[in-house]
Write a structure and sequence with these properties.
By secondary structure, this protein is α/β, with parallel strands linked by helices. It is built from 18 helices and 23 strands. The chain binds glutamine.
Length: 535
């Protein structure tokens, strides 16, 4: 049954950032989906960058890439992992995008001599982007997460757009405000004052929250709920606690216990249908919490002090671990810390080695050492994007004896450019949105490869984000010496996957399989990688 008029839920955050608005929004969406509603999730980011593609991971964590090639916020990764449906360009809006379209309309003369202002022009464009998802008739409920914290100057136009939409839509829209209830260990008390202040801040902007989710380390009792309800004009059954849990994947079940979905549906005048079964989800959680095996994967990258930079990879490892009944522990290894003298000590006991994606020359040496160590010691190796290019460079140098073989990204003057700039990239001058982005088809050319065993089909589709590629001029030499191209782009002949068949499991992929791994569909390559480590 379709809902005649789409409903809109806005998720705002107060008190502090990093409370997990993305996980909360995804968990609620999961529950509503399990009750038969078609749900879309959207993130509004208040920064002025047009997209996070140009942002350093230290600033913003991982850049997540959608099927249609948008470089987006990492929360979209959570949306896909929880809902098991792909997102697109429309699911991530930034202030940069809003201003870009308003300014180009102004240049075209669309505003006919009017003064262009934040209200109504910027807020109208925000509202248009919010309504786009609902207007297609595809979704019953659109959940929009407002990035940042209420009170930030940058968020003001978004909160104003939410105020206007609530006014226009009445009971078809509601606001969930996520705050923190800190615990003071000195007095053994949970404190609600920051939440009260945060709601006041929202009220100053004309927005009355309908539901409050209180993030807390300890159980929140009825008395505290009643107090919060009294100070914020929110009904007590709509004051919900979100107690810290060991895994983000437990949050939907916690929110189910709190009846967050029921409260939301009632407020939106939608029927509370029987929950479809969450059996698959519970099965995953059961395997996650009761593993029979344990494996350790060394993840070699240059942003390892910031785990968010590799969010989709670490989540894909969690999914693949559960699929193999194994607990996967990631040993984070800073590529710049690896040297010839310590590589053995640092990597010897790892079950498998994963070399992460990346850009630029920093940390390349350590990554090459890691690839060599894995290849020479028959340790399962998974190279993703730059990690695949590293495996190729290492093989060229130490097996083909092409001294100084390199990627032209790292050494433009190398005598052996085994990884080189793609033809289409040679004319590119802008940085933003100009890489090879989004989903491309790839043909697996051998039924004997490890990758074919994993996917069990000949044509696959995976998402890309890179400028450089395997240089086909060297392919015959590589194949003769034992590194095979086992996945090829059917239209361009670009090498998308290399493999060393004689090795226990040595696979390099030019694409990013991690973006497609979800709780209910763990990625076949990650599953196969973990299985090979267990074997
Ligand atoms: N820097 C490499 C390229 O542009 C790899 C990119 C990546 O790992 N995502 O080709």
């Amino acid at each position: 049954m379709k809902v005649a008029d789409s409903r809109y839920i806005f998720v705002t955050g107060g008190v502090t950032s990093s409370l997990g608005k993305g996980i909360l929004a995804s968990s609620l969406a999961k529950l509503l989906q399990s009750r038969g509603y078609a749900v879309a999730l959207q993130k509004l980011d208040p920064y002025i960058n047009v997209d996070p593609g140009t942002l350093n991971p230290y600033e913003h964590g991982e850049c997540y890439v959608t099927e249609d090639g948008a470089e987006t916020d990492l929360d979209l990764g959570h949306y896909e992992r929880f809902l098991n449906i792909p997102t697109s360009q429309a699911n991530n809006v930034t202030t940069g995008k809003i201003y870009q379209s308003v300014i180009s309309k102004e240049r075209r003369g669309d505003y006919l001599g009017k003064t262009v202002q934040i209200i109504p022009h910027i807020t109208d464009e925000i509202k248009r982007r919010i309504k786009i998802l609902g207007s297609k008739g595809k979704y019953d409920i659109v959940i929009t997460e407002i990035g940042g914290t209420v009170g930030d100057i940058e968020s003001l136009p978004y909160v104003e757009a939410v105020r206007q939409l609530k006014w226009e839509m009445g009971s078809r829209a509601l606001v969930i405000h996520l705050t923190l209830v800190p615990y003071l260990s000195a007095t053994g008390e949970l404190k609600t004052k920051p939440t009260q202040h945060s709601v006041k801040q929202l009220l100053e902007n004309g927005v009355q929250p309908d539901v409050l989710v209180l993030r807390t380390e300890h159980h929140i009792d009825e008395q505290i709920r009643a107090k919060v309800a009294l100070f914020t004009n929110v009904s007590i059954d709509a004051v919900v606690q979100s107690v810290d849990v060991p895994s983000i994947y437990e949050v939907p079940l916690k929110m189910l216990e709190e009846k967050l979905d029921v409260t939301v549906l009632r407020k939106l005048d939608l029927p509370v249908r029987e929950p479809a079964d969450l059996e698959d989800w519970k099965g995953f959680l059961h395997r996650l919490k009761n593993p029979e095996h344990a494996v350790e994967i060394a993840l070699v990258g240059k942003y390892v002090e910031l785990h968010d930079a590799y969010k989709s990879i670490s989540e894909a490892l969690v999914h693949a671990g559960a699929a193999n009944n194994a607990r996967v522990t990631v040993r984070w290894i800073h590529s710049e810390s690896l040297t010839e003298a310590n590589v053995e000590k640092k990597l010897r006991s790892a079950g498998g080695i994963l070399v992460a994606p990346g850009f630029g020359h920093r940390g390349i040496k350590g990554k090459i050492l890691a690839a060599r160590f894995a290849r020479e010691n028959n340790i399962p190796y998974f190279g993703i994007c730059l990690g695949m290019q590293i495996a190729v460079i290492e093989f060229a140098r130490h097996v083909l004896h092409l001294e100084e073989a390199d990627s032209t990204e790292i050494n433009p003057g190398t005598p052996h450019p085994v990884i080189d700039l793609m033809e289409q990239q040679k004319e590119v001058t802008d940085f933003g949105g100009t890489m090879r982005l989004g989903a491309y088809e790839c043909r697996l050319i051998s039924r004997k490869s490890k990758v074919f065993e994993a996917y069990n089909k000949l044509t696959i589709s995976e998402r890309h984000r890179h400028r450089f590629e395997f240089n086909n001029a060297y392919l015959p030499q590589f194949e003769k010496a034992g590194m095979k191209a086992v996945g090829i782009n059917p239209d361009t002949d670009l090498v998308e996957i290399v493999e060393i068949p004689a090795h226990k499991w040595f696979v390099g992929v030019q694409f990013h399989p991690e973006y497609r791994s979800t709780v209910l569909n763990p990625h076949p390559l990650f599953v196969s990688f973990i299985r090979s480590v267990l074997a």
